[in-house]
Amino acid sequence: MTGEFVGTFMFLYFAFAATQIANTITPTEQNLMQLISGGLFNPAVTLGLVITGSLPALRGLLLFPAQLLGAIVAAALVSCMFPGTLAVQTTLTNGTSITQGLFIEMFLTAELVFTVLMLAAEKTKATFIAPVGIGLALFVSELADGSSPDTGVYFTGGSLNPARTFGPCVAQRSFQGYHWIYWVGPALGAGISGGYYRFVKYFNYDKIANPGQDDSHHPQDTGEGKGR
Predict the structure, then answer these.
(1) Angle between helical axes of 2-24 and 162-172 (0-180°, round to 10)
(2) Quick one: three-class SS letters along 108-164?
(3) Rounded to an integer, what is the distance from CA 3 to the centroid of its chain?
(4) What's the CA gap between 45 and 112, in Å, rounded?
(5) Which one of 61, 149, 192, 202 has the fewest beta carbons within 10 angstroms of its own beta carbon?
(6) What is the pTM of this model?
(7) 52 near 121, Cβ under 8 Å?
(8) Over the chain, what is the mean pLDDT?
(9) How far is CA 200 from CA 117, 156, 188, in A?
């Protein structure tokens, strides 16, 4: 639990600090892209792992408050250290309705959680490069350029992580009336990804779609090269 607290704190501290800087400089100076990572420092990812059985339910239950506490401390520290009002909240903008925001958060979180499940929870010879794939999934969901804003950041703030939204709200002692969508949306997304992951695992996708994907054909591994 302490590792999850420290990890969530460190991760969200730097994320909040970057967002605070981006939101307090003038528009002509702004050229900083927001990237919020899931890692495991995310209750939605934790829920997805519990649903698939990759993480024991008891451990997931213990990690959950550690993640929330880490987010609160990170937001509070950024609020104290940086001048101006804390400007890292995730909010609905550009005419986005509550229902639209809910489904945007749901589908973007589903993408993230499914990527984590397939690349990190699913142990293969490619697991060591899982951070690259997860980072790309976050890049797709979060990154925005100056003229073509990304779906998540532009309309909902791109939370994909209940702790990321909850921390700043506690630090500012202010919750929007639609704050619940940043919990329900990611939870539904985690449920969709976890359910689909169990579905493809039940039908042994690895043996049907790509049989032998983890087999080694190198002579040194197969024994053909031994004794030479």
Answers:
(1) 70
(2) HHHHHHHHHHHHHHCCCCCHHHHHHHHHHHHHHHHCCCCCCCCHHHHHCCCCCCHHH
(3) 17
(4) 8
(5) 202
(6) 0.75
(7) yes
(8) 76
(9) 12, 30, 18
